[in-house]
Amino acid sequence: MTTVGxxxxxxxxxxxxxxxxxxxxxxxxxxxxxxxxxxxxxxxLAIADSATAAAADREVVITMLPDGAALLEVYRSIVADVRAxxxxxxxxxxxxxxxxxxxxxxxxxxxxxxxxPVSGGIAGAEAGTLTFMVGSDPxxxxxxxxxxxxxxxTIVHCGGPGCGQAVKICNNMILGVSMIGxxxxxxxxxxxxxxxxxxxxxxxxxxxSCWSMNDxxxxxxxxxxxxxxxxxxxxxxxxxxxxxxxxxQRAAASVDVxxxxxxxxxxxxxxxxxxxxxxxxxxxVIRHVRALVRE
Length: 295
Ligand code: NAD
Description:
The protein is α/β, with parallel strands linked by helices. Helix content is 53%, strand content 13%. Strands 3-2-1-4-5-6 form a 6-stranded parallel beta sheet, sandwiched between helices. Strands 7-8-9 form a 3-stranded mixed beta sheet.
């Protein structure tokens, strides 16, 4: 399995595709943004003018796109033209319905397909240490495993088509809630005139420890380097977090499950995006939390 088409070469797709090239695979990419194409070209990818051209005559086609609408738009343009037995693997985070529709489009041509959303952020994409949550029949998961092993460190087959997206939505609901919790604690400590570095030292080694604090602290100069140290340039944009929390709420409604903290986090990020901060990293929600305290 050495020929790959890679569509969507942004913050995540660019480094993921770069790792495949570095591992010796023949990767042709496509993105609608010229800047993303230029950066990918510098990593050794061949760049095609269209998604259809990038996907033609490839053993595997990987998509890493913003949302379900973009995914289905790309599938409408590529599925009819890929060669027989091409494996279609979508690594974007999309709603479960779009993921299943993408699987159905592949099935109409008897193409194996996989939903394999990721966790680990840009740092994980660059280091090849992502976690992949795979939804597919077991043989399709095994067929793409060598590629996943290059781009990631943990590969979990979560179940049939759409199950990877279901697990991803649950993970990101926890992340959205935990980031707001960490921000509230740091702002509270700030108001209580505690050195935030001491809060980090304690919480990161205590029962309050979590990824949002330990690995992605939302305050500059505290903890390991994170988007907070770069004026909240993403990273993982607040607009994407808002999208994911919206997906979690739609999934919860579809099975009559109440997720009050998830709903609250969705509302907080929706307000952040509406206030024009959707382009900032999601950890910049600390500014929003601070504004609430001052009200
Ligand atoms: P991004 O916006 O940086 O990249 C998406 C890319 O897709 C862009 O370069 C865009 O130009 C391209 N694109 C959009 N429509 C297209 C089309 N029709 N054809 C070709 N290219 C198209 O976003 P990202 O941060 O790389 O995230 C990609 C996906 O991964 C999202 O679904 C996101 O939720 C998920 N994700 C992101 C992170 C993160 O930390 N950034 C972590 C886990 C999962």
